[in-house]
Hints:
With 497 residues, the chain is mainly β. The chain has five domains: 20-134, Immunoglobulins (Immunoglobulin-like); 137-243, Immunoglobulins (Immunoglobulin-like); 249-344, Immunoglobulin-like (Sandwich); 348-404, no CATH class; 412-495, no CATH class. 1% of the residues lie in helices and 49% in strands. The strands form eleven sheets. Strands 11, 14, 16, 18 and 19 form a five-stranded mixed sheet that branches. Strands 34-39-38-42-36 form a five-stranded mixed sheet, with no helix packed on it. The longest helix is centred in the first third of the chain and has 4 residues, at 157-160. The N and C termini lie far apart (90 Å).
Amino acid sequence: MSLNAGDVSTGNDFLDTLPVTIGNLVWMDNNRNGVQDANEPGVPGVTVNLLDASGNVVATTTTAADGTYMFTVMPGEYSVQFDTATLPANTVITVAGNGAENVNSDADQNGMTRTTGILLAGDSDLDLDMGIYNQLAGFGDTVWVDLNNNGLHDEPLNDNGLVGVDVNVYTVDADGNETLVDTTTTGPNGFYQFVDLPAGDYLVRVDQDDIDRDAYPLSSTPMMWNITLLPGEFNADVDFGVLPNVTAIDLLAFSATKSAAGVSVQWTTASETGTLGFNLYRSAGIDGARVQIGSLIVAQNSLNGANYTQNDSSALADGTYYYWLNEIDLSAKSTEYGPAAVTIGAPKALKNLVAEVPGIIKLDEDYSQFKAAQVNGEDVATLALADGLVIFVAEAGAEVTILENADALRMTVADALPADEAPTHIVATEGVLNFTASADIQSYFLKGFASEPIVLNVDDVRKPVVLSGQPYELEDGSAGVHVKSPGNVNVEAAELD
């Protein structure tokens, strides 16, 4: 309208109309129940079209980083269309209409929602939502020793999970031809999993060359499964159980001790079924020739087990004696146990060396459980590992002697699992660190190691104490360990590999 100076215009009415708001969310419906559950994230980057009552697109927007969207328009009746071409790959729209309106999904499989009804000035409809889920699938879970043969991995998996076993997944065509899709290897506790597989039919098989069939000759589950995966499904029940080699006895203990008449050898069984008895052998060295002690010791064949003692009166001279027990079952199959060992008189020196640097030293020694050490002529506590003997040397240039001794002084192990307090961080240099701990500090995080370190309280250099904490593998591939503070003591840590 244009007015010149002195003009008058009447009958002109103006209406100030409040807009309406329409929204609200596209979310990842991980459990596929059609309901916005806690911890289900929003989906960004989805194109959303606003349609008027005639089905015309009047506005377009894109979901934000948290999955929300919003239109602010004039009053009227509207609906929303989510552009399915902009959904993340391998996702589909979830079921509509489940649950309350403010938490359900409103979109059909084409991305169309219900209408808002007529919205008046200032009204809003913030319940036009759409849930989607990933149609890729997966499965797992465990390869283990099924001690009770029940097909369930209810045994302690830290002891009975099989690590390092390849699991292969295949597709199979109509002619029975297999095509390898993927391979993974069991990790700690025998656990494995495959993820991001298209829905469909698969054949799953373990590589039995990776299983010690002498130790585990039979299986409690199939070693091959045919499975069908639905969109978004994860099947956590594809397990593979193997059975341990069954022996006629369950041996609880086997030991040798000095006696007035030589050596007393004792063993205890938890159960016996179908065994003829036992032959006992002795050698004067770990690899020495074996001599049978006495004749066959007849088994008691008690389901509740039994105790046995055999005296070796010919083991009188100084030295370390090694004993092996051979159990003979009714089929004449022999199972060997041992060795047990005892040292009579002064231990025999096996080798001498000079420590070039002070600190924790690992020596490559077979049968380390029967080895001892002296530093500068004094007995020191050692840690016997499966692949070596660990000692602590306080000074460079110290003379170290390794001895054959079944009664060696050993390091004690202290529980040093940390509490929840934030730790003090200390970084190793070239895989080694030493420091004085403080009673005022709750815990330490020792890091900078290429492999899991051993941590010692070395206040008593002759009798170090192993601090058993919580080991970690860090994101950069290095290793660390979190330990509770042992108080005001000297601490040494070193990687051993």
